[in-house]
Structure formats: structure tokens, C-alpha cells
Amino acid sequence: MNFFRFQKFTDIYRNYTTQSHHKPLTCFIMKRILSLNCDSPSRIKKIATILSSAFILSTTAVSQTDIYFNDRTDNDSSYINNPSNWYTDSSLSQVFTGEIDGSQNAYIYRDSANTYKLAAYSTASFDTLTSESAPILNNEYISSFMMGNDSSLKVNNLVTNITLAKVDKEGKHSMYQWELFERATLTVENNWEINGIRNGAYDWILFSLKDGENGGSINVKGNLYSGPKTDSNFIFSTMNRSITVEGVVDLENNVWNLATGSTIDYVMRNVGGFGDANSNGISNIRLNIATSDETLQKVVDLNLTNKSSYDSTATFTMKPGSASKLNIIMNGDALNGRQTLRFNFSSTHTVWDVDCNNANINNVEICSGRLDIAMYDGMKGNNLSLYSYDGNNSHAVFSAAGTSMGSDIGTVEFDSMTFYSGTLLFDLAEVENDFIRINGTVTKESPSAQLVFDLNISRENLEIYLDALELDMLSWNLMSFETEGSDISLSDVILKTQTGIEGTLSFIEDLDSGLTTIKVDLGLVVPEPSDFAAIFALAAIAYAVYRKRNS
User: Fold this and answer.
1) Helices then strands (H, E): number in the chain?
2) Which of 348, 447, 450, 455 has the fewest beta carbons under 10 Å from its own?
3) Sequence-distant contacts of 81-89: CB under 8 A, at least 24 apart
4) What are 56-64's contacts with CB under 8 Å, separation 24+?
5) What are the residue ranges of helices labelled H in 151-194?
6) How far apart are CA 80 and CA 99, in angstroms?
7) Residues 383-442 pLDDT 10s
8) Whole-angstrom Cα distance, residue 187 to residue 377?
9) Alpha carbons 194 and 254: distance in angstroms, whole number
10) 459-485 core/surface letters (b: 16 or more CB in 10 A; e: else)
11) Nearest 5 degrees, angle CA 470-CA 473-CA 477?
């Protein structure tokens, strides 16, 4: 910025600060701007300079205060809602004398001896809250933070750093736990960054969130992601009833333990998508349910609320024989919300002393938005359900995908399927295509239920395939299901093709296998004689115009 122009503005600002009025700075600046003669570009440029200068000063004039939490020598000194427990310098020599009002950048360094707390029925608000542990020893359990009954913590940004002590022997887990007692609420207005720093140790870092008997709630309005300091072998373990991340979850190939062997039977995990939240090009999530007792059933509803499109590879593991279940529900934006989950085979790993192996998912329900799922060979789901909230078939879409990033074509398997309204999208290529295998029945939720089969193949590609094979028509098998007990019929399905393609669906029953296969035959649309006449007429007109212009 030109120095003299900036100096001119600082004079305006100084004049403002010396006047005995309480109007906002912006009002004062606009008054000065309106007094200018705006009859020339140079004047307009000067106005722009004033506005930009105002923005700089207005954003820098209000500075955040850095405060540091004390050493927690007793119970009274452990409460973050008490301003007297904070200092304005990292050496803890200057006591903070203000009010905790949300404008402070707060730093908490936790040694292994004491827990910091938010008192019951109290509130605390910070701009950025950074919590950092002292190095955790091998197999050590740390109760780091507790929120009392009916307490409320609100921060704009939350940073949690967990560091292991370097120990030259193999352990199992070093656990760092936050506990929310009855009806406690944690709200993060922007992002939550979690760094799991192993420091060369063998242990897994396990960061655990736990509820009281009547539950607490966690709401992250931005993204939750592994920070740049995070090493491998990091476990984010949610033992609480409910957690909501409105943005993207990105743990970079680390584990999200969705539920554990606590007394809570049903939990909800609301996620705005799995994708690349920290712009490093990596999107991989390892989902897990850890219960040591096979008969102890944990039901996890993974509710996807995508506002945009995200793509992530994934794994899902549990203890072999576990009765726990993972349901995946697509509740995203009807037009723009899309999630691709590419499930791949996983090696065995241990969570909470539980050896976890590859597992099947339970129910998949598409209510709003689009969900693409890839399954490795041998993986399946229980029930696939399409139920568009508003009855618009195009607003609830399901498609199979490939297990590798960028691959659109794949095969998925479910034990049954139900539908009211929605779309099944099939990607078609010359020698491969999406396929949905239903081992059991396909049933309608109502007599008026409808499905759209949307075929993703262009006229250009179809023409290439037909020419190469010297055929007029190509066929693909799209789906199979058990004939007996199914009530889907040809009249329940609407075929959707791209421009220039015509197709026919058929239901083919196999008496030996007891299965019905849905097949599609596609060919190119052949113009009617009247269309040819119109084409020739347009060509003649175009040629006449060309001749006239050249003459």
C-alpha cells in the first residue's frame, strides 16, 4: 500500500479516536467517503484504498489475548472457568485479571498428575483452545479433561496435541481421555485439529471421548482432522452417545473407533463427509467397533450429511463373531451431497485389547443425496433401502463403485433390498459394469413405489463399443435377486438413458437358481425419415448461406 495514502487514513482514524462519540468506525469512514467527489476513476481508487485500509485496521485493531493455564496444584486450581487460574505469560508469572469472554487464545499444558475441569453448571468460551499433554508413558491411562453436569464449553477452534514418551519396548495403548458428564455440551464453531505424536514409541495413541449416564453432546461445525504432527497408530475412540461433525472427518488412515464396550447400546455419529480436510491429498478412514464380549451388541448409526461431494477409501473391522452393527445412512444435500466410500480389506489390529478383523456392514439407507459404495470380494451388507424424503427419485441415489480411487465400476452385495423411491445408477463400459447382487428379496414399501435405473454411458462410447464388436445392440446384467418373495416388477422401474440411446429392460428368471436377473439392451437411436429430411434441409440452407458469403 502507498505509504502516504495509508498515512492519510491513519490521520482519519486518529481523528475518529479523539472524538467523543461511540459510533462504529465503519460509520465514521463512510461519512468521510461520502464527502468525497466521486466523479473520476482516481477518486474511486482513493475510496477503494480507504476501504482496504479500514479493513486492515479493523481486523488488526482487535487483538486476541493469549492466556496460559496454571499448574493445577489442587482441586480449586483445576477449573478452566475460573479466570484466576489463567496467566498472560507462558512462564505463569502474570495473573490474568480479565473475564473469559471468548476473545482469548487459551493454552493448556497437562502434566500426568492432574486433570483440568469445567465446573458443573458453568460456561467457558475461548477463541482458540490448545490442549497439549506431557509425554504419556507406556500403557499409561490419563484422565485429562472433565466437563461437569450441565456445563458448556464453546471455542472457535480446538487443537488437541497428544504425545507419547519414547519407550524402547512394545506396549499396547496409551490412553488420553476427555469425559463429559450429564448433559455437558462441547461446541467447536470451526475446526478441531487432533495431533497424535508417537515420538518413536511402539504404543498406539488412543484419544477417548466418554459420556456420563445421561449423556453429553459434541458438535463440531467445521472439520475434524488429524493434524500435520500426527503419526500412524492413532485411534480416535468415541464412547459417547452422540457426536456431530458438520464438516469433513479426515483421520489420514488412522482409526475411528465408533463405539466400545461401554453400557451405551445405541450411538449416533453425524458426519458431513469423509474426505481430504487438510488438503494433503490423502483421504482414508479406518472404521471400527471394539467390544470384547461377542454377545454385547452395539448399534452405530453413521449418518452422512454431506453438502458437497467427497471420496474416501475405508475399512471396517470388529471382533470376529461380534453382534454389533454399523448402519450407514445418507442424509445429504439432495442436489450436491455425495459420498463415495471405498471399502478395502484390512489387516488385523487391536483396539481396547480387542483383536479386530474385517466385518460386514449392516443396513444402508439412502434418504437424500447420493451414496457410492465399493466392497472388496467377500464383503456384503444386510439391507439396501432407497427412500427419498421428498418422493423425487433423483434426490436419493445409490451406485456401486470400485475399491481404488478413481474407479467407478464395482459390484456390491446385500442380503435384501427395500425401496419406496430413488435411483440406482449403473456405470457401463464395454466389458464391465456396475452390478448389485441381492441374495434375498427385493420388496416395495408401498404399491406405488418406483425405482429409476440410470445408465451412465454416453452415446459416443456406446457407438465405439458397437462398431468395435460389429453389433447393433449391447446387453448388460445390472442386478439379481431372489425370485420367490420379491414383489418388484418391470412396471416399477423407469429406465433412464443419455441422449441418443434407446434401451429395453427385461426380468429373466432362472428356475434352477431361483434368481431373477435384470438385463438391459442398449442401442443407438435411429433418426426417423422425417428427421433425415429436416437434416438435409438444414444442410442445404447452411450451404446456401456459405455460398452467398463467399460470393
Assistant:
1) 5, 36
2) 447
3) 81/118, 81/119, 81/122, 81/123, 81/124, 81/151, 82/119
4) 57/9, 57/10, 57/13, 57/25, 58/25, 58/26, 62/103, 64/103, 64/104, 64/105, 64/127, 64/128
5) none
6) 12
7) 999 999 899 999 999 999 999 998 999 999 999 999 999 999 999 999 999 999 999 999
8) 40
9) 12
10) eeebeebbeeeeeeebebebbbbbbee
11) 120
Please identify which residue in the block is written with the cell numbers 484422565.
Answer: 143
The backbone torsions φ and ψ at residue 85, rounded to the nearest 5 degrees and listed phi first, read -90, 5
Residues in the chain, total: 551
Q: 344: helix, coil or strand?
A: coil
Q: Which three cell numbers stand for residue 303?
A: 449418518
- Give the residue from 133, 119, 106 showing the smallest Cα distance to 76: 119
Using an 8 Å Cβ cutoff, are 306 and 331 in contact? no
Which residue do the cell numbers 485479571 mark?
A: 97
Give the pLDDT band (50/70/90) at residue 52.
Answer: low
Cα separation, 201 vs 214, in Å, equals 37
Q: Are 322 and 359 in contact (CB under 8 A)?
A: yes
Instruction: Name the phi and psi angles at 25, rounded to 5.
Output: -60, -40
User: How many other C-beta atoms are found inside a 10 Å radius of the C-beta of residue 297?
Assistant: 14
How many Å apart are CA 43 and CA 173, to the nearest integer? Answer: 66
Distance of alpha carbon 142 from alpha carbon 165, whole angstroms:
13
In Å, how far from its chain's centre is CA 106? 27
Q: Name the E strands within 212-361.
A: 217-220, 224-226, 234-238, 242-245, 249-250, 255-259, 266-271, 284-289, 299-304, 309-318, 325-331, 338-343, 349-351, 354-358
Distance CA 278, CA 275 (A): 9
User: Which run of H or E residues covers position 59?
Assistant: helix 41-61
Q: What's the grid cell of residue 136?
A: 504419556
Collect all residues with Cβ–Cβ distance below 8 Å to 389 and sequence separation of at least 6.
334, 367, 368, 395, 396
**Is 287 in a helix, a strand, or coil?**
strand
Over residues 208-223, the pLDDT tens digits come to 898 877 778 999 999 9
Distance CA(88)–CA(155), nearest Å, equals 19
